[in-house]
Amino acid sequence: MLIGVIVLFLLVIQYANDPELYWRFNLVEVGLTSIPLILYALIFLIQNLQKSTHTYFYFCNGLIVYLTSSACIFLTGNSDSVLFTEPFVLDFWFFNSLFYILYQFLIYKEWKFLNSHFESTETDYADKVTVVE
Known about the structure:
Low-confidence stretches: none
Number of domains: 1
Order of helices and strands: HHHEEH
Mean pLDDT: 82
Strand content: under 5%
Strand order of the largest sheet: 1-2
Number of strands: 2
Keywords: Membrane, Transmembrane, Transmembrane helix
Helix content: over 70%
Structural class: mainly alpha
Shape: flat
Distance between the termini: 54 Å
Radius of gyration: 21 Å
Largest sheet: 2 strands, antiparallel
């Protein structure tokens, strides 16, 4: 909570001092918003690994991978870095899209896991209930 307030305070100060940053690419904003989210996800993952049941494991891993790659790409700035042009153009933004698709897949996998867990719990409960006439 405290980190969120500090980040918000720093961003408000930055935008109050230079309102033109609303219309330009802001590296400080990318760093200030991405790094705490990555740290929170890492802390959650470490605390979750110490438990016997792992909740939101796929989601947390996907978030870490996507935010780390995305932050690295965005922190390079507005560079138009192209890795190679033949047989097709491959730039950093392709990797951002690729990691976003991976993140969406891990969210789907987490949803399937939670949905199957909910259905198995519901089935176990239905087996224990007896109908009395």
